Amino acid sequence: MEVTKELAVQVSAEIKKAVEEILAKHGLAEPKVKTTYGDIYKLVIESSVEAKDASGVNTKSAEAIYYTRFGYTAYDAAFKATELVAPLGTKFKTGGVEYAFAGINSKKPKFSISAIRVADGRTIAMTDVVVPLINSSAS
What is the reported pTM? Predict the structure, then answer.
């Protein structure tokens, strides 16, 4: 018997709900849950201390810490470098939706920009094409 996608989604949702309560009780942020299914079922839970600033950005998240320590440089098709210089929490709009810049996810090179959708607080991964938008919103 294999673990199906439907079963993995159902089990992961139940586990995440229980874990959220435990983490919140100890001052930790909402968990990121990653699953693998098929012959085996694997669940990875990641969380950090929750320290949100006024813009809703968790300044203790892995993405925020990476940006604070190392910064970020994007390269366009002609290999022209564009350095991301905006502070965490900078609000910018793309596609008519407002976001707050939340950091860099170094484990996702294609979708490395982490942003929070202002309307509902959901974290979104974006490509580096938004770097000029973020920079221009910071000035």
Answer: 0.73
Q: Is 85 within a domain?
A: yes
- d(Cα 90, Cα 99) in Å, to the nearest integer? 8
- The pLDDT tens digits for 8-17 are 999 999 999 9
Domain with 128, as residue range(s), is 62-138
51 within some domain: no
Q: Where are the beta strands (DSSP E) in the chain?
A: 32-36, 42-46, 73-75, 81-83, 91-94, 97-104, 113-117, 123-126
Classify residue 56: in a domain, yes or no.
no
Q: What are the tens digits of pLDDT across the range 28-47?
A: 888 888 999 999 999 999 88
